[in-house]
């Protein structure tokens, strides 16, 4: 493999530049599509997973629903409700539970309520919580504090408000120690918090207000009702073990059939992450498959071009064979030409694909919050895999033309007009 050999290879490839360019487009397009599709899948995965930042990995959420099976004289369709007694029961009877934080919300899930301060007002999400909730979804305190157990025990009318709530209701005024009015009840602001989340979830957090759970029940006539529960598994137990233990305990306490699948709705972050990983794995497979198919089409194009080239060089190969070139030497020559063409085209496609991903990243950065699509890109492993695929594809593409070149007898080749 000396300098003359490489010059000869380049001369053959560039003898028909337009034909070479058209043959290379298919390979470049296939690699570019592979990079773009996998990069886009990674961007979607990054965006979706970022929405769960700040949430404990061993967390679980549970709420009550209606039964779907009759049991112990109760008909199906009976509505199950949760209360303070159920919370104490879970704390004392289910060792798999490490942290338990019952929750309430005015207006139900994602409901908004009118909150006012002086002449200013806004619609915000109002929650009743325990301090332990900040362990399930960490709260970024900017000033003051979060709800504490003293607030719970003494039924204090205090609140911690999101940064956006503070901006709407107070503007440049300091909210600390001031009173806001929620459904006719005054609450003193003791803290302002930010968020560790992004996208719509971050916006929702910043427009939320946290009240002591016990005060919430008393101020808004909730009795001892519990809306839903946030939990963390205890050390030494998995989320799945806690999930099964909690649901079984509640079914026994509420006289629900052990096999009833609908009485208690629930989900865990572990389950959600597993579901997402499965979906994104499918995206990667589809991206690889489509890119590979386009690449195969490009390889077929190169094979056809090389077959035409081999036919045009029939006399040349005859001369080579007649002056002592071995079949292996001819095969190696043709395969090197095809391999070089394939690898160069593949690298061009890879560079274009990575460049487009960088342009997309720059555009997303200029837009600020891009929602569920962040940092599309490819890993070094993908680049290495693509390089291996290109080398193997080039070798395979060159094999058929090379065998065609040595299949012609030197005497016949010399007689050819090609």
Provide a brief overview of the structure.
The chain has 418 residues and is α+β, with helices and mostly antiparallel strands. Helix content is 55%, strand content 18%.
Describe the structure using short key phrases.
single chain; 418 residues; alpha+beta; six-stranded mixed beta barrel; two-stranded antiparallel sheet
Polypeptide structure, described:
By secondary structure, the protein is α+β, with helices and mostly antiparallel strands. It folds into three domains: 3-52 and 274-415, no CATH class; 66-96 and 234-262; 100-231, no CATH class. Helices cover 55% and strands 18% of the residues. The chain has 14 helices and 13 strands. The chain has helices at residues 3-13, 17-50, 84-93, 133-136, 149-154, 163-170, 199-206, 213-219, 239-253, 269-312, 314-322, 327-367, 380-407, 410-415; strands at residues 59-64, 82-83, 97-105, 113-117, 120-129, 140-144, 158-162, 179-182, 185-194, 208-212, 225-226, 228-233, 264-268. A six-stranded mixed β-barrel has the order 4-5-10-7-9-8. Strands 2-11 form a two-stranded antiparallel sheet. A hairpin with a 2-residue loop joins strand 4 and strand 5 (120-129).
Main sheet attributes: strand count, strand direction, barrel closure:
6 strands, mixed, barrel
**Which residue ranges are poorly predicted, with pLDDT under 50 across at least 5 consecutive positions?**
none
Structural Rg = 34 Å
Helix content: 55-70%
User: What percentage of amino acids are in beta strands?
Assistant: 15-25%
First-residue to last-residue Cα separation: 27 Å
Counting structural domains, the number is 3
Give the spatial strand order of the biggest sheet: 4-5-10-7-9-8
User: Averaging pLDDT over every residue, what do you get?
Assistant: 83
SS-based class: alpha+beta
Q: What is the β-strand count?
A: 13
Shape: elongated
What is the chain-wise order of helices and strands? HHEEHEEEHEHEHEEHEHEEHEHHHHH
Number of helices: 14
